[in-house]
Amino acid sequence: MFLKSFILLCISVAISNSEVILKQVVILSRHNVRTPLAKNLAMMTPKIWPTWKEKRGYLTSKGELLEGFMGEYFSLWLRKEGVLAELCPTEDVFFAYANTAQRTMASAKAFVRKGFPSCNITVYHKEDKDPIFDPIVHNDSTVFRQQVLEEMQLHLRSLVLNHSYETLENILDYKKSNCCEIDNKCDLVTDKNQAFVSFGTKPYLSGPLKLSKSAIDSFIMENYEGFPLNEVAWGQLWNMNQWNGIIALSRGYHDVIFNTTLISKDISKPLRDYIKELFINETNIPKVVFIMGHDANLYTLLNSMGVKPYNLKGQYEKVPVGGKVVFQKWFDTQNSTFYMKIDYVYQNTQGMREGLRLSMENPPEFTLLELHGCKINDEGFCLWDDFKKLLNTL
Ligand SMILES: *[C@@H]1O[C@H](CO)[C@@H](O)[C@H](O)[C@H]1NC(C)=O
Ligand SMILES: *[C@@H]1O[C@H](CO)[C@@H](O)[C@H](O)[C@H]1NC(C)=O
Ligand SMILES: *[C@@H]1O[C@H](CO)[C@@H](O)[C@H](O)[C@H]1NC(C)=O
Ligand SMILES: *[C@@H]1O[C@H](CO)[C@@H](O)[C@H](O)[C@H]1NC(C)=O
Ligand SMILES: *[C@@H]1O[C@H](CO)[C@@H](O)[C@H](O)[C@H]1NC(C)=O
Ligand SMILES: *[C@@H]1O[C@H](CO)[C@@H](O)[C@H](O)[C@H]1NC(C)=O
């Protein structure tokens, strides 16, 4: 009896001795639910697309609601972990930064408004196009252009999408679309994809893969927005199997334009340098920096940092709207060691459809990420020194 409680005491001392404290956080987010971006949706199908209240590419009121829930959750979490103490943190403690697009600014404002109600927190943004978020090619050499095109074409050729194209053609009733009847592009499987890369612009793909991605993007947003299931893709995407029948098209598109080595390194450089500065320059850095950008920013940053393949449970998107890559610098008080931990924090599709509010009892999903250059331990921590070394090689 005595021995038993002695052992228990020893165990609890050992546990309480090793305490890790969250010191610094950088949150890289994608804007929340927006209206579809593509201008040519009506060309792709004889069917009528759902109508949206907001302008093309704008954050929807559902997106604002969901991003507000994220703000509420993160504010609670950051307080629980002790990174934020004050009710209304000042800019040198919590700094919010968004791209100039309406959907990114409105998302960041929704996050801050709900996370820090009745505080006067400004969302910082540039006046014009912000190079940190602009997913353009920076390298002007023709050699680079050739290398990138080769990488993209290699990836395009490796995709096996026949079955997905056929499934999407059926959903769209593509043979009766204007694309087919007017433009004579009638076969997603055999029509050609073409990649374009040039200095100062976003990499571009024309052809059936781009078209498919645009249609699927609309289905994904309709689903998050909470359109009735018989209206999402005209009632043809009820279950996981049906989504899985087409989602490879969207993944393939994003992999081709953003998820190859050379292009991701080049495109994400300004954002990577900004984040690197936040972690390496130890003077005057806010404890929490919240950055609101686009899928292109997340794809290229994750690839260029060497993130290992990951799977987001309950999500069709690899880089979901409202999802956040959360870089956390932790300190182990027992052996005075710093660590980096990276989680993908996001809400699952069903929760978004239903508009479920987040809280400490009902948190968003956390999926641990690992970088090739920073081996994690059982708790998901990698050594800060390894992370720093990795940042310096990028
Ligand atoms: C510090 O202690 C933790 C356990 O509290 C352990 O996981 C980690 O490996 C230690 N770090 C070093 C550098 O010894
Ligand atoms: C809120 O902050 C802005 C910019 O920091 C400042 O111009 C404004 O006066 C503040 N408003 C209130 C009510 O404190
Ligand atoms: C541009 O690309 C070329 C070819 O890949 C490479 O050698 C060069 O270092 C790149 N320039 C910059 C500034 O990254
Ligand atoms: C896909 O379709 C193309 C064009 O019809 C055909 O050449 C190719 O063999 C098909 N591939 C597979 C894996 O079915
Ligand atoms: C760190 O930040 C300070 C103040 O913002 C700046 O003056 C300095 O150049 C930065 N240091 C590095 C190494 O970037
Ligand atoms: C990028 O490509 C890799 C390898 O093809 C894949 O495992 C990973 O899931 C992709 N990343 C994203 C964010 O889609």
Low-confidence stretches: 10-15
The rounded distance between the terminal residues' Cα atoms is: 57 Å
Query: Topology as H/E string?
Result: HEHEHEHHHEEHHHHEHEEHEEH
User: What is the helix content?
Assistant: 40-55%
Question: Structural class given helices, strands, pairing?
Answer: alpha/beta
Give the percentage of residues in beta strands. 5-15%
Shape: globular
Main sheet: strands, sense, barrel: 8 strands, mixed
Global Rg: 23 Å
Bound molecules: 2-acetamido-2-deoxy-beta-D-glucopyranose
Number of E strands: 10
Tally of individual helices: 13
Arithmetic mean pLDDT? 94
Tell me what the structure shows.
With 394 residues, the chain is of the alpha/beta class. Helices cover 42% and strands 14% of the residues. The chain has 13 helices and ten strands. The protein has helices at residues 2-17, 61-80, 102-115, 142-158, 162-172, 178-181, 208-225, 240-244, 247-258, 261-280, 295-305, 349-354, 384-393; strands at 20-30, 94-98, 123-124, 194-196, 204-206, 288-293, 324-332, 337-346, 365-369, 382-383. Strands 1, 2, 3, 6, 7, 8, 9 and 10 form an eight-stranded mixed beta sheet that branches. Strands 4-5 form a two-stranded antiparallel ribbon. Helix 4 (142-158) packs antiparallel against helix 9 (247-258), helix 7 packs across helix 9 and helix 10 (261-280) crosses helix 11. The model is unreliable at 10-15 (pLDDT under 50). It binds 2-acetamido-2-deoxy-beta-D-glucopyranose (NAG) (6 copies). One 2-acetamido-2-deoxy-beta-D-glucopyranose binds at residues 160, 162, 189-190.
